[in-house]
């Protein structure tokens, strides 16, 4: 750069730094007090301004009846019950005299004005109840008062001790109080407890639950008792609880006086003077035997053993009587309050009883007492006695007898074996659920139970299948008196139709059911057994009869031997025809092919008319000697046995049932379609399996 004036150039250069010397003479600056105060005031102003700008107004409303002290753990400006305080959570304690302290957390929110309400809980009050009788108990709001109670009597301690005053700490407020004490009416009231430690006295007056009872007696000194409580001796005034009470006065030698009183609390009664009656004498009577009737002065008093009260100091007629014994008479006098015992033995009136016993080894008991075995004569009182004869293996036999003096009586005791007795109890007739009647037959009790089935070769009309062979019947059995009717069979098979022949119906209700196969007849028996809860006799598989159970007592078809026995055996004789031994019959005795049946059967029993072209209603003709109908006509009958021709002169078979199953089954008896001598004989046998218009059946069953 050139200098137009050509003056020399002045350069500016940096100078080296030199610190001021410590002892520099330059003067020092000092802060003045006013400035400091001003600065502090400014800071405080700023802080106060910041507090006022951020603080919230919180009103603390405390419900209490005493001056309140509020302590907040944090900065707060109080203005009475209103405080300025910044938002946040602060522990707070509020207290007042007589109240439980309140400790909580004060939460200050963002609202400008806020309210915090607190109701202080008053402390319990000290309540003393006075005027209580001894043993009183108090219940407050349904709960017993306990724990803080005490008595104003310093000599008493504990809940059980009587008290006149009771003190308790009780929460402030309104309460329901109930006071109870023995012999007083309960008292219930409402009390208002101030609380806050304030002492209150409440006087309670319980009304007595008794009344005063004044009573005297003649003589004096009688014990006064109400219920089981003894209250004193007459004359006296006693306290008796209210209600219906039984008053008793007792004195030695006198009858107890009893009276029922209606006692009303606080209403006294004066009963005056009660005259006691001398006590009755007491007679304790026993007799041998016991159970004797007792009369005193003609009045019945009961049976011995007996205690009888008698009017003292006078004679009483005493009479004892018992059936079979002589009457006892006596006179009894007892002093007042005296007790006497009499044990009297009655003299029996005896009658003789002759006991005949079979078997003679049977034991005899009379009225439960063993008197020996075998026949004997005994003298017994004239009352009814039970005589029991027993022997092992025999059914016990009981008889009752009333002896008579001077009259000898005979009692026969024939014991039966248990089996005989069991059979004797079997009913003579049974009625089925369908109304059929079955009669009982016990071949062992008949004159003849062993006989020969079949017919001799010399018997006119005999057929080859009527081979003679012996049988024996021992099991008792029941047999239907008639053949099964259409009405009865249709209860089993509703669709059954017996049909008709040449316009003559076989299908009427009381005609025998025909067109029934052997299988159907056996199935009917099983159906009826189940209907009466009896074990079925026949075994079945898928509705087919496959065999039988010999021991079952359900319904079945009669065996061939049973059918022959009831039709032929008459006492010791064997009948040839249903009506006897003569042929032909001279009067209508069975329904067979008679003169009117020629156009139906093509064959008839010449000169015979029974009044029916085809089958007749069952039991239209007289029964046979066993009370059974239609065994010789009407419908031929299925029997249980599989059809076989037996071997000649075989061994005796007992209660034969035949084979369990087979192809054909035996048919016995004549029918409305038969007329020849061969067919009308009772030994005539036929066979088949399918139904026919002249074959029906009747039912049977074993008795046991």
UniProtKB/TrEMBL annotation:
<dbReference type="InterPro" id="IPR013229">
    <property type="entry name" value="PEGA"/>
</dbReference>
<dbReference type="Pfam" id="PF03781">
    <property type="entry name" value="FGE-sulfatase"/>
</dbReference>
<feature type="domain" description="PEGA">
    <location>
        <begin position="351"/>
        <end position="417"/>
    </location>
</feature>
<feature type="domain" description="PEGA">
    <location>
        <begin position="281"/>
        <end position="348"/>
    </location>
</feature>
<keyword id="KW-0812">Transmembrane</keyword>
<protein>
    <submittedName>
        <fullName>Serine/threonine kinase</fullName>
    </submittedName>
</protein>
<dbReference type="GO" id="GO:0120147">
    <property type="term" value="F:formylglycine-generating oxidase activity"/>
</dbReference>
<keyword id="KW-0808">Transferase</keyword>
<dbReference type="Pfam" id="PF08308">
    <property type="entry name" value="PEGA"/>
</dbReference>
<keyword id="KW-0418">Kinase</keyword>
<dbReference type="InterPro" id="IPR051043">
    <property type="entry name" value="Sulfatase_Mod_Factor_Kinase"/>
</dbReference>
<feature type="transmembrane region" description="Helical">
    <location>
        <begin position="34"/>
        <end position="53"/>
    </location>
</feature>
<keyword id="KW-0472">Membrane</keyword>
<feature type="domain" description="Sulfatase-modifying factor enzyme-like">
    <location>
        <begin position="450"/>
        <end position="701"/>
    </location>
</feature>
<feature type="domain" description="PEGA">
    <location>
        <begin position="210"/>
        <end position="266"/>
    </location>
</feature>
<dbReference type="InterPro" id="IPR016187">
    <property type="entry name" value="CTDL_fold"/>
</dbReference>
<keyword id="KW-1133">Transmembrane helix</keyword>
<dbReference type="InterPro" id="IPR042095">
    <property type="entry name" value="SUMF_sf"/>
</dbReference>
<dbReference type="GO" id="GO:0016301">
    <property type="term" value="F:kinase activity"/>
</dbReference>
<dbReference type="InterPro" id="IPR005532">
    <property type="entry name" value="SUMF_dom"/>
</dbReference>
């Amino acid at each position: 750069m050139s200098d137009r004036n050509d003056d020399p150039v002045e350069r500016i250069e940096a100078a080296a730094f030199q610190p001021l010397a410590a002892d520099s003479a330059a003067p020092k600056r000092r802060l003045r007090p006013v400035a400091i105060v001003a600065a502090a005031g400014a800071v405080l102003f700023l802080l106060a301004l910041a507090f006022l700008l951020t603080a919230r107004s919180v009103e603390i409303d405390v419900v209490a009846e005493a001056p309140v002290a509020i302590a907040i753990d944090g900065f707060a400006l109080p203005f009475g019950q209103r405080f300025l305080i910044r938002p946040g959570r602060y522990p707070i304690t509020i207290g007042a005299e007589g109240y439980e302290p309140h400790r909580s957390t004060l939460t200050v929110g963002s609202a400008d004005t806020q309210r915090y309400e607190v109701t202080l809980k008053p402390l319990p009050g000290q309540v003393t109840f006075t005027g209580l009788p001894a043993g009183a108990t108090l219940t407050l709001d349904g709960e017993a008062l306990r724990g803080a109670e005490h008595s104003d009597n310093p000599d008493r301690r504990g809940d059980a001790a009587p008290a006149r005053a009771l003190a308790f700490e009780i929460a402030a407020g309104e309460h329901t109080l109930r006071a109870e004490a023995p012999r007083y009416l309960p008292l219930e009231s409402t009390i208002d407890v101030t609380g806050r430690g304030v002492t209150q006295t409440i006087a309670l007056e319980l009304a007595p639950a008794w009344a005063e009872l004044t009573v005297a007696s003649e003589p004096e000194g009688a014990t006064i008792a109400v219920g089981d409580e003894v209250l004193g001796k007459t004359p006296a005034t006693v306290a008796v609880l209210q209600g219906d009470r039984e008053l008793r006065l007792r004195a030695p030698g006198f009858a107890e006086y009893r009276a029922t009183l209606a006692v009303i609390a606080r209403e006294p009664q004066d009963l005056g003077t009660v005259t006691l009656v001398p006590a009755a004498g007491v007679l304790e009577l026993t007799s041998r035997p016991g159970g004797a009737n007792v009369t005193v002065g003609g009045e019945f008093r009961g049976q011995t053993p007996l205690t009888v009260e008698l009017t003292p100091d006078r004679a009483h007629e005493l009479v004892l009587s018992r059936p079979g014994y002589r009457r006892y008479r006596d006179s009894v006098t007892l002093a007042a309050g005296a007790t006497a015992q009499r044990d009297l033995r009655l003299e029996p009136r005896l009658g003789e009883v002759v006991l005949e016993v079979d078997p003679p080894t049977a034991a005899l008991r009379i009225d439960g007492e063993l008197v020996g075995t075998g026949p004997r004569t005994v003298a017994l009182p004239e009352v009814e006695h039970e005589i029991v004869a027993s022997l092992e293996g025999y059914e016990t036999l009981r008889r009752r007898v009333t002896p008579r003096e001077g009259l000898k009586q005979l009692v026969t005791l024939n014991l039966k074996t248990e089996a005989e007795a069991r059979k004797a109890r079997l009913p003579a007739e049974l009625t089925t659920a369908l109304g059929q009647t079955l009669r009982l037959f016990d071949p062992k009790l008949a004159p003849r139970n062993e006989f020969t089935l079949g017919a001799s070769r010399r018997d006119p009309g005999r057929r080859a299948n009527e081979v003679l062979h012996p049988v024996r019947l021992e099991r008792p059995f029941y047999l239907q008196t008639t053949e099964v009717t259409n009405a009865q069979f249709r209860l089993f098979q509703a669709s059954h139709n017996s049909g008709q022949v040449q316009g003559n119906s076989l299908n009427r209700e009381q005609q025998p059911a025909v067109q029934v196969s052997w299988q159907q007849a056996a199935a009917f028996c099983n159906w009826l057994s189940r209907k009466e809860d009896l074990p079925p006799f026949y075994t079945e598989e898928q509705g087919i009869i496959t065999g039988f159970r010999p021991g079952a007592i359900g319904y079945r078809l009669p065996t061939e031997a049973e059918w022959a026995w009831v039709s032929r055996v008459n006492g010791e004789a064997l009948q040839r025809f249903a009506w006897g031994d003569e042929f032909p019959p001279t009067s209508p005795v069975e329904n067979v092919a008679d003169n009117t049946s020629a156009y139906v059967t093509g064959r008839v029993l010449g000169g015979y008319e029974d009044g029916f072209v085809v089958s007749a209603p069952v039991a239209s003709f007289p029964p046979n000697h066993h009370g059974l109908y239609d065994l010789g006509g009407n419908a031929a009958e299925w029997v249980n046995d599989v059809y076989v021709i037996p071997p000649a002169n075989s061994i005796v078979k007992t209660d034969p049932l035949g084979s369990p199953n087979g192809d054909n089954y035996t048919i016995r008896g004549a029918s409305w379609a038969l007329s020849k001598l061969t067919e009308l004989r009772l030994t005539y046998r036929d066979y088949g399996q399918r139904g026919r218009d002249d074959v029906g059946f009747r039912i049977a069953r074993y008795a046991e």
